[in-house]
């Protein structure tokens, strides 16, 4: 395993982390007695194999249902001083609820302390305020630090880049969990800000939210050769030394195998990556033309600036992926979260796009005349069964 200094924490962080949202039994709290023995056995085998590989950062959250409780059966059997354990708790308007939720996490994990506590979901102005105000959730986290229950405090986010940078610039956090990978590089400015503040940088779900790369379409497989899509994405992320660790949302012990192949390639990134990136970029041009491929995103309105809260940038991005790379399953899954994801996945679908006037909000887009029809066509391609965030099901 390779390790990188995790910012100001000075922790030696493995470049892969064992994320805890795919191996648990339920997305809700359940008694241990209801967890099937084969599920618990699989989880424990996954954690032990992770530790054997040197992937000693185990990451979970209060919002991951039975994950913490199930981890509490195996973590105390491993050398505590060799583990880096992270859990995350969502900010609350009432900070006493935040503290109560953390205490529940600690009890479920069956540990005396966690190494990393992430304030889970600084995604918008409300969650920022609930965290940062005097007497808010960050102050509670500081109290927990003083009590020895937390070593370092960070935050996780699905928010807009400007929201992430605002939180980073407070200089109150030791690390950040954020989305950034080949198909979505919007948060690079936030990573640069985190680097300036000497924060650890943890990439959320690069193989799942980064394109469901564990079940890639054949076209994407071809475009990424000689790498697999998973290996390409890992290598792309880790080629930047200010990215410290990628979450592997392992569902079973063998899920680490493909990622481990990247470790021997990191000293060859300048040779391996450019041809694959060039092929992916050229395919976008081949499919849509150079003008669209290079300018589709310019001066698009945010969902807050758009009638009916339609998330135009997200929808056009998903259309690009579905058509250029055959990533239809991924695009449909993400599109149908719109309207159902709250501040974790904001904005709405474009199902009623013909009933609203987009002229004003698109006035600065070079593609203003085409976008309404493109949105209508995209809805026909991507519409399907409504999807909810897993933690709300």
Automatic annotation (TrEMBL):
InterPro entries attached to this UniProt entry: AKR2_Oxidoreductase (IPR053135), NAD(P)_OxRdtase_dom_sf (IPR036812), NADP_OxRdtase_dom (IPR023210)
CDD domains: AKR_Fe-S_oxidoreductase
Gene3D superfamilies assigned to the protein according to its UniProt record, in alphabetical order: NADP-dependent oxidoreductase domain
Residues annotated as domain NADP-dependent oxidoreductase: 40-200
Domain of life: Bacteria
PANTHER family linked: D-THREO-ALDOSE 1-DEHYDROGENASE (PTHR43312), OXIDOREDUCTASE (PTHR43312:SF2)
Name of this protein: Aldo/keto reductase
UniProt organism field: Brunnivagina elsteri CCALA 953
Lineage: Bacteria, Bacillati, Cyanobacteriota, Cyanophyceae, Nostocales
């Amino acid at each position: 395993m390779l390790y990188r200094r995790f910012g100001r924490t000075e922790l030696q962080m493995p470049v892969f982390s064992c994320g805890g949202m795919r191996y648990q039994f339920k997305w809700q709290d359940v008694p241990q007695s209801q967890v099937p023995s084969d599920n618990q056995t699989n989880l424990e085998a996954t954690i032990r194999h992770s530790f054997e590989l040197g992937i000693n950062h185990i990451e979970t959250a209060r919002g991951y249902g039975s994950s913490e409780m199930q981890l509490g059966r195996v973590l105390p059997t491993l050398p505590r001083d060799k583990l880096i354990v992270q859990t995350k708790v969502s900010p609350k308007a009432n900070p006493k609820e935040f503290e109560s939720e953390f205490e529940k996490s600690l009890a479920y994990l069956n540990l005396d302390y966690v190494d990393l506590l992430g304030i889970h979901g600084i995604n918008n102005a409300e969650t920022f305020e609930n965290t940062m105000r005097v007497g808010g959730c960050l102050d509670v986290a500081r109290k927990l630090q003083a009590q020895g229950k937390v070593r370092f405090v960070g935050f996780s986010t699905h928010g807009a880049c400007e929201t992430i940078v605002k939180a980073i610039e407070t200089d109150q956090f030791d690390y950040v969990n954020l989305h950034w990978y080949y198909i979505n590089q919007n948060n690079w400015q936030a990573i640069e800000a985190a680097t300036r503040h000497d924060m650890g940088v943890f990439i959320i779900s690069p193989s799942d939210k980064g394109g469901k790369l564990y079940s890639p379409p054949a076209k994407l497989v071809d475009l990424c050769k000689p790498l697999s899509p998973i290996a390409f994405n890992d290598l792309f992320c880790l080629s930047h030394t200010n990215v410290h660790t990628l979450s592997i949302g392992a569902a079973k012990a063998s899920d680490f195998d493909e990622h481990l192949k990247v470790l021997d390639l990191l000293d060859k990134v300048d040779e391996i990556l450019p041809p694959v990136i060039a092929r992916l970029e050229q395919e976008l041009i081949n499919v849509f033309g150079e003008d669209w491929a290079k300018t589709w995103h310019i001066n698009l309105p945010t969902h807050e600036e758009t009638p009916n809260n339609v998330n135009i940038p997200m929808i056009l991005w998903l259309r690009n992926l579905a058509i250029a790379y055959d990533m239809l399953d991924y695009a449909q899954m993400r599109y149908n979260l719109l309207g159902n994801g709250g501040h974790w996945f904001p904005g709405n679908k474009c199902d009623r796009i013909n009933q609203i006037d987009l002229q004003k909000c698109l006035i600065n887009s070079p593609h203003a005349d085409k976008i309404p029809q493109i949105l209508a066509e995209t809805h026909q391609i991507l519409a399907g069964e409504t999807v909810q965030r897993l933690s709300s099901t």
